[in-house]
Amino acid sequence: MPNSPASHVTGPTPAVQISGIELFLLDLPLHEPFVASHGETLTRTIAVVRVTGDGVIGWGECSALPAATYTAESAAGSFAALADKLGPRLIGRTMTPQAVVPLLFDGPEVALPMAASALEMAVLDASLRSTAQSLASWLGTTRATVPAGVSLGLADPGETVAKAVDLAAEGYNRLKVKVQPGHDLELASAIRAALPDIELQLDANGAYGAEAIDHVLAIIECGIDAFEQPFAKADERAAIELIGLLAQSGRPPIPVVADEAVESTKDAIGLLERGVMTGLSIKPGRVGGLIAAVNIHDLCRAKGLPATAGGMLETGLGRHALAALAGLDGFTLTGDLSPAGRWLAADPWPDLVLGQGRIAIHQGPGVAPDPDEDVLERFTVERCRVSNAP
Ligand code: OSB
Ligand code: MG
């Protein structure tokens, strides 16, 4: 099993007898469109699941975007798969959180890692709530807060610089700015000039080709602290060459961070062996769950590879989970840890709190505080009660 549980998430966790699963497809408005080179998100359509068992409720979030652009999953597609395929396999079973993703593996890999991780999160939430344990304590996270980081989508460069300055004034010490060809060098140097001390990461979502290696190096020369997925995941030679050139440059090399390229522990090991990355963005949904995310974190820590907790425009539910994960000490690069309200104009979950440049980690039972049922109701566009396979 490529995603076997890591040592500090194998502790005794009560099994939950799953008597009901309900799915919700939400359409949450955004304050502004989120634009990246993989596509544009105008409304955050997102699937969430509610598991009932042994008198407790557990919530889980499927981080798939509205359209299958960034990964092969989409919110509505994963909602349908949860209803027809994955959900029915859990009904009536008694499951530990650790057993959920392995059960949903059809072959050697999770075909729908984001859908599977929603069910894992829900069973984990129910299990933790049954013993009033927080996710943070179960993960072994000892920090109370994590440094806050915020992302900026592709937009008019002048507006992006102004926004960067505003966000820095709100207390963010790290910015992750989306770039793509023609929208990069001047933007990065203007932000660096305006904010000389900020931790500045760029994310290209694979928008550059091998012919742009020198250009990417020139962008890094602006004083960038990390560069996420500069090349498409299939373009491993370009990443290897960039990493080699950075090593020869005489300056301390910045992490070349893989995001899209890693969908499992196996992927992470392979990329490391081939020298394709010198940093990794760990997104629980993309890698098939929180337990897989912890495994990959442990690998990064063992290898001294800088890791960052990656965001997916989650609701407060997913964002609280990400904050607890980000408290593990292998996360040496600041993650996408802004309140969900940075992007979402409505959210059923109580939001993360930002103060003095840090995000507080939820210490109550389960993954996150309870959602507001009225808000949930208001923004639900599709709903389904999972039943046993006929
Ligand atoms: O590439 O990191 C990415 C959001 C959706 C899909 C992919 C990415 C992102 C982000 C948003 O960059 C980060 C955030 O949630 O703040
Ligand atoms: Mg990214």
Describe the protein's architecture and organization.
The structure is a single chain. The protein is of the alpha/beta class. It is 33% helix and 22% strand. It has 12 helices and 15 strands. A 7-stranded parallel β-sheet has the order 6-7-8-9-10-11-12. Helix 10 links the parallel strand 11 and strand 12 (307-309). Helix 2 (97-104) runs antiparallel to helix 3, helix 5 packs parallel to helix 6 and helix 7 (213-220) packs across helix 8. It is globular and about 60 Å long. The two termini are 29 Å apart. Mean pLDDT is 94; it is low at 1-6. The structure holds 2-succinylbenzoate and magnesium ion. Magnesium ion is lined by residues 203, 205, 228-229, 259, 281.
Keywords:
single chain, 390 residues, alpha/beta, five-stranded antiparallel beta sheet, 12 helices, disordered N terminus, binds 2-succinylbenzoate, binds magnesium ion
